[in-house]
Task: structure prediction
Amino acid sequence: MRQRWIAAFCARSVTSKRARLASIAVLVLALLLVGGGAAFAMYPSSEPTYTGCLNERTGTVTHIARGDRPLGPCTYGLTIIHLSGGDLTSLTAGTGLTGGGDSGDVGLSIASSYQLPQACGAGQLPAWTGSAWKCIDNITSVTAGTGLAGGGDSGDINLSVSPSYQLPQTCAAGQLPAWTGSVWKCVNDANSTYQAGTGLDLSGTTFSVEPTYRMPQGCNSGQVAKWNGSAWTCQADAGLLSLTTLSSTVSEDHGIPDDGTLRPYASISVPSAGTYLVITTGTIKSEMNVDDFRDVRCTAAGDNMTLSSLKLNDDAGIQTPFSLIGTSTVAAGDTISLFCRASEGADGIAIGDTRIVVVKVSN
Result:
């Protein structure tokens, strides 16, 4: 039977080229003399090689010897392995590491963004700030707020929507949620409709202010909104209106003679021309028969004009308050007065608490 031989020849210990060639020739000749095919491998590397026995179960290597044979036979369960040495030429830092290099003393460390804080207190946790990890307090309890149920301070904690805040999940198409007083339920849409009230317009589902009720939006500083007959427009402010008040002496009544003659009991002179709102008030008093009130008449009048007048009745007892209101366009310096008269036979009639108020409403 032919025998196959595998030989490994390491020529690194032979110093001269001629000696190496001679050694190789001797080895080849020996193999040829043995007969059969022969194979050999050369290890021209300058690094030493080692052979040992690997225990694959424990990961340990034993019987290590320099060369291509172990120090002792690899028994059952052991596998022959070959080891070689070598110089480190470079070291590259991978993900999460920093450092490395290809010369000198090379080091590796954890990148700062991958470093967990080292000064956390008991129970604290690492939290990412966006650029680094920091220590934060651990959540010790969860409390359910408005509309939620659950929470707790130990074990598996759950939160859910409280029943009274849960909308129904089985409504048909077009239905709406409606409150029953304790829960929400599905109801049909009542198709509620709306109508525009005074000053409003309704177009589809949109309300707006009618044009004649809209205040102008482009007024300059100091301008006011004024009605021009069809819309509100920005106009200059005419300033404050003149307000003048004249009151009679309230501690003294003035008698009204029963001769039917109109006499002034309060007067006021307007300071400038214009249209004025005139308000006159007073109280008619009787010392005798209140039926005589029916014979008393009072009038608010200006120069050559009458603003308003009234005839009293006898339904108010011994004192009858009254008021007269009207407007008058007068010239500057015109006088507005309150006149009263009593018919013949109306004895004991007096007037008091008289007052005239005039307010200028336009120039």
About this structure: Residues 17-34 form the longest helix (18 residues). The first strand starts at residue 5 and ends at 9.
